Amino acid sequence: GVQTCALPIFLFFLLPVFSLLRAGRMMGQDLGPGALLSGMLDPLLLAKVAFTGRQAGLSALLSCLFGLPLGILLRNSPRAAGWLKVPFGVPTLVASAAWVSLFSRTQLLYSFEAVLLSHVVLNVPWAASLVAEAAGSVPSRWDELARSLGAGRWERWRTVHLPVIAPALFSGFSQIFILCSMSFTLVTILGGGPPVETLETAIFSSVRSGALDLVAAANLAIWQLVLSLLPWLALRLFWRPVEISAVRPASGMREPFWHGVLAAAWVFPYLGFFSDLEWSVFGKYEFWSAVIHPLLLSIGIAMAVAVVATLWSGIAIAALLGL
């Protein structure tokens, strides 16, 4: 089971990195242990590691700080909380174009602040969704029992609700950190290049720029894996979920209208994409002839990835259940 779960890491990380190192050796680059260690500890590379960690850490922290109260507020409003899932269906390029349109008249465009703000707005709904699901699963009888024993509001929050919400919030922080550390399109477009450069964008520059440096790309990829594994390992070590049956309000329960407005507000920034859109282009033959091939290719890749991911997940789950 463990081998099945570890196989994707071997196929999709170790093999590509080994291929980069092999190609670098064929190009005559020094790949001895001393050279590799020196490359891993290069001050410029370490600066990119630090910047990536700071960007991802701040993005995850702010997303969870804003997502926590939002999720608690929407814990008994599942229909309103459904709006929180909409931003994850927005294509990254569309989101980037929307933010460019919003920032075009400000000093934020092509800055660290633009990247940070876009990541926070994108990921607050995810953190809030996890918190709302966890908070909504706390049985009301637990709270009533604690109240009958004389526990005040803060004591009930600390002893009844927090043990259920905290693992979900920590899980959300870890996932958001990993996603933001691997973010490419938003960083490339909204950051505008160095000095707003993360490990992910630096890897792209190493293999696509004029000065091809495959060894540097491999070193960057190794650091990227380290950053991605750290929150996952922390999650495995410290996450102790509380096993309870989910309790949701009855389907006929009336939800405050403003709950839906508050949840849907996190979709509004992406409507900026349509502000500068030339609608007449959709009626032109030249437009469709230019996009039909990329469109079909994108659909084909998405379907293939979905099928492989679903099959692999099924195999991994079956293997884990068999442990």
Structural overview:
It contains 13 helices and no strands. It is mainly α and 323 residues long. Helix 6 runs antiparallel to helix 9 (185-191) and helix 10 (199-208) packs antiparallel against helix 11 (214-238).
Quick summary:
The protein is 71% helix and 0% strand. With 323 residues, it is an all-alpha fold.
Which overall shape is indicated by the principal axes computed on the Cα atoms? Answer: globular
Distance between the termini: 6 Å
Structural class: mainly alpha
Low-confidence parts: none
Q: Indicate the mean pLDDT.
A: 81
Radius of gyration: 23 Å
> Number of helical runs?
13
The largest pleated sheet is described as:
none
Order of helices and strands: HHHHHHHHHHHHH
Total beta strand runs: 0
Percent of residues in β-strands: under 5%
Fold topology:
Blueprint: H1 2-26, H2 33-40, H3 43-73, H4 78-81, H5 92-103, H6 112-136, H7 140-148, H8 153-181, H9 185-191, H10 199-208, H11 214-238, H12 257-264, H13 285-321
Relevant terms:
globular, single chain, mainly alpha, 71% helix, 13 helices, 323 residues
